[in-house]
Design a protein that fits this description.
This protein has about 500 residues and is of the alpha/beta class. It is built from 16 helices and 14 strands. It binds adenosine monophosphate (AMP) and zinc ion. The site of adenosine monophosphate has 17 residues, from α1 and β9.
Length: about 500
């Protein structure tokens, strides 16, 4: 099986292999904790979850790092208006983010580094860029000199002339994440403005000089180039290096981050490290609100997970909608109908899994087992083809109709039931909405039982006994019956 992922860098679906054997180093852009994450943000985060789960299914060990941006102009503005420090201000939102991820059954990343805890790493990288001539100081701010990095624009396939001519630097905009528009809840307008002492309009800030009030809110750090705070882009370059080294296998984020954020990350990291920054770049499409507009915190009117839960939606249906309704590179529109439809699909999967727990006929009624094996293969192929979960689920739902009909007529024998359990475990490895652990366990146990039966047939009793003991140690007892081998849970020995 070959895994192909769409790489923004090449513009094609490329065969994915990590640099280092079977270990994948992956960095994904996380939330800016100036407010609750909205469902659009959560779509991006669940795309990361689908990606990490499929990498595991494909046999790789994954080290996944997702940053928490806890310093940002909006955070500074909000903390100041609330009369508190940025640490106090961001704490509940960072906690809410982690809680949302748990509610949506996202596997935790190996690391969630926070920007404010990695200022030293950022200062070090900025110092290197200054030494190398890739950065310059202008009135206490430090900027990256884009003219010093000829490859700038390669990720988003920008031509540099066009970039220079077409760049948008709105005076009064803050040149950082988000826009200067008032945010959800009608908070007061921002009170800080970027200064423009740059050599070129497209040069971007690595470090921003402190204003007196920044110290009071805990947002100023000493650096050799003056007291200040880091820009947003340098965070990701410094923290990914700290946890994953100079070259990542995969860097992912929402498509809005491709330019300028990811382009800037590449420029900083490659200029500082003289190594390729990331081999694969994956970008997920937006979630639109009911009006078809990209959901956005700055534009207001966004929906959070809390809102959907309060409206009575099941978190499992929300999860399924976000990952399985559309391919990650297609836009998707949030609606009550779509969430209800996802809830219905989850129920069909769960009901079917429950039916499989009941005793089945000893003999297969037809070629169902073969057909399930084909669907398992097709499902895996769809996932290996740039994580096409909607296509994979299409195969599964088609099969469920047939298998339900076979169950109704008593035509599902042991071989088919075993394959169906394995299929449900395959599906749950990604969607995790069926009965997660139980289904995966059942699939695994059935596989071990089959191996033990094969060993017994081959009169390899040592292997057969070893498998029985291994299962017993995991709390599973085997019993021979007329219908074949059955298993049940016992206290672990
Ligand atoms: P932020 O908290 O704004 O830094 O965004 C965190 C992640 O959410 C990034 O990967 C963004 O690309 C992604 N994102 C922001 N808005 C949307 C949206 N409407 N749909 C999908 N992803 C989004
Ligand atoms: Zn980033």
């Amino acid at each position: 099986m070959t895994l192909r992922l769409h790489n923004t860098l090449t513009g094609t679906k490329d065969v994915f292999e990590p640099l280092d054997d079977s270990h994948v180093r992956m960095y994904t852009c996380g939330p800016t904790v100036w407010n609750f994450a909205h469902i659009g943000n959560l779509r991006a985060f669940l795309f990361y979850d689908l990606l990490r789960r499929h990498l595991q299914v494909a046999g790789f060990r994954v080290t996944h790092v997702m940053n928490i941006t806890d310093i940002d102009d909006r955070i500074l503005d909000q903390a100041m208006h609330a009369g508190t420090t940025i640490a106090e201000y961001t704490k509940p939102y960072a906690e809410a983010f982690l809680a949302d991820m748990k509610t949506l059954r996202a596997q935790p990343a190996e690391q969630y580094p926070r920007a404010t805890e990695h200022i030293e790493e950022m200062i070090r990288m900025i110092s290197t860029l200054l030494e190398r001539g890739n950065a310059y100081v202008a009135d206490g701010d430090v900027y990256f000199r884009i003219a010093s990095f000829p490859r700038y624009g390669e990720l988003s396939h920008l031509d540099r002339e066009g970039l220079r001519a077409g760049v948008r630097v709105a005076r009064g905009g803050r040149g950082q994440k988000g826009s200067a528009r008032p945010a959800h809840g009608g908070e007061a307008p921002p009170i800080r403005q970027d200064r423009y002492d740059k050599e070129s309009v497209s040069d971007f800030a690595l470090w921003k000089k402190s204003q007196p009030v920044d110290e009071e809110i805990g947002a100023a750090w000493d650096a050799p180039f003056g007291k200040g705070r880091p820009g947003w882009h340098i965070e990701c370059s410094a923290m990914s290096k700290r946890y994953l080294g100079d070259t990542l296998d995969i860097h992912a984020g929402g498509v809005d981050l491709m330019f300028p954020h990811h382009e800037n990350e590449i420029a900083q990291s490659e200029a500082a490290n003289h190594r390729q920054f990331s081999r694969f770049w994956l970008h997920s499409e937006h979630l639109a609100d009911a009006t078809g507009e990209k959901m956005s915190k700055s534009a207001g009117g966004f929906t959070t997970l809390r809102d959907l839960l309060a409206a009575g939606h099941d978190p499992i249906a929300i999860r399924f909608f976000l990952i399985a309704n559309a391919h990650y590179r297609s836009r998707v529109r949030l609606s009550d109908e779509a969430l209800h439809a996802a809830g219905e699909q989850v129920r069909r999967l769960q009901d079917f899994a429950r039916r499989l727990q009941q005793p089945v006929a000893p003999k297969d009624g037809g070629r169902l087992a073969e057909r399930v094996a084909e669907v398992r293969h097709a499902y895996r192929e769809a996932l290996d083809d740039d994580l096409n979960l909607p296509q994979g689920m299409g195969h599964v739902f088609d099969l469920l109709r047939e298998a339900n009909a076979a169950l109704d007529s008593g035509g599902v024998g042991e071989a088919a039931a075993r394959e169906l359990l394995l299929l449900m475990a395959d599906v749950d490895a990604h969607v995790d909405v069926v009965t997660a652990r139980d289904m995966a366990l059942a699939g695994e146990v059935e596989q071990l039982i089959a191996q033990r039966e094969a060993a017994r047939k081959a009169r390899d009793f040592a292997t057969a006994d070893r498998i029985r003991d291994e299962l017993r140690a995991r709390g599973i007892a085997l019993e021979d019956s007329k219908e074949g081998v059955r298993w049940r849970r016992i206290a672990k020995v």
